[in-house]
Specification:
Structural class: alpha/beta
CATH superfamily of the largest domain: Methylesterase CheB, C-terminal domain
Number of strands: 14
CATH architecture of the largest domain: 3-Layer(aba) Sandwich
CATH topology of the largest domain: Rossmann fold
Strand order of the largest sheet: 8-9-7-6-12-13-14
Radius of gyration: 20 Å
CATH class of the largest domain: Alpha Beta
Strand content: 15-25%
Shape: elongated
Largest sheet: 7 strands, parallel
Number of domains: 2
Number of helices: 13
Amino acid sequence: MIARTIVVDDSPSMQKLISAVLETDPEIKVVGTAANPDEARQMIKALNPDVITLDIEMPGMNGLDFLERLMRLRPMPVVMISSWTRKGADATIAALEIGAFSCLPKPRMDDEAALKDMCENVKAAAAAKTAIKGRHNPAAEHAQPSRTGTGRKVHGLDAIAIGASTGGVEALTEVLTGFPADCPPTFVTQHMPEHFTKSFAERLDRLCGPAVVEARDGIPVRDGHVYIAPGGVGHLTVSGRTERVCRVTPGELRSGHMPSVDVMFESVAKVYGGKCAAALLTGMGSDGAEGLLALRQAGAHTVAQDRATSLVYGMPAAAARLGAANLVLPLREITTALFGGRTEVTQNVCA
């Protein structure tokens, strides 16, 4: 399959650069470039691309408004390409909630890993075309946060751990907005650049019953709190026996990532054993599969998102193949399952 792509950016030089990078991959063909949403709209109608790349700051209608209209009227894979500024981070998190496939930095020709990642994201976005067309927008459907709940005291959980990657902003928003305010300490690793996780935590904090914060090294672990691993700084782990604290420590990449879901899951398994629950959500690759298996072997209740509701069925599929999940469930059922609402073992977990 050739991923037919339109590049949307108001800078002619950036159009040329992004196009040049993408066309180094024989599985991608740039079929057009557009300088603004009006040009992009006409080009999409005429060329019917598999993917578009989209900048946020453009003249006339900005990229965020254009994306919202596009996902409402003609859902399709969109890869956001933006600068790593705080303003850009806030807007890109909003774009991911609206339905963008992923967010990437403006390319630099001397960063080979980032250039390869851009090509891989565009190809993965094209492969997810059918899923994107069929999904809804949970960001527009949130109920008011639950200020009461059935958290730790009812279900006997000492902790919850959740991992996600591509598609995880939407998935985590849906899962965590169902959490009660008195939930057990919850640890989250979402693959995301350094400048984005603080914005993501702040957005979740406005939507969720528990307090949602970006984790920092040495902060105490408390009930009613969700701790988001900071992007690019280190791996999120937990330490301590009676007074537990978050640890954020630099280290080697694990499963290609820092922070790594595997590292976090294995730490939670070591500290909490069977008195916790964990979920592995949508994402490219296999990060988290081995860690989820370690949690299940420690006696924890483990859940993986199913194929039908995953934007990218990579990480949860890897967990299912390892037998790491007690349950493989649609996204809408995962919150209930984490708090003990589903206890039977799902059969045919690779489906």
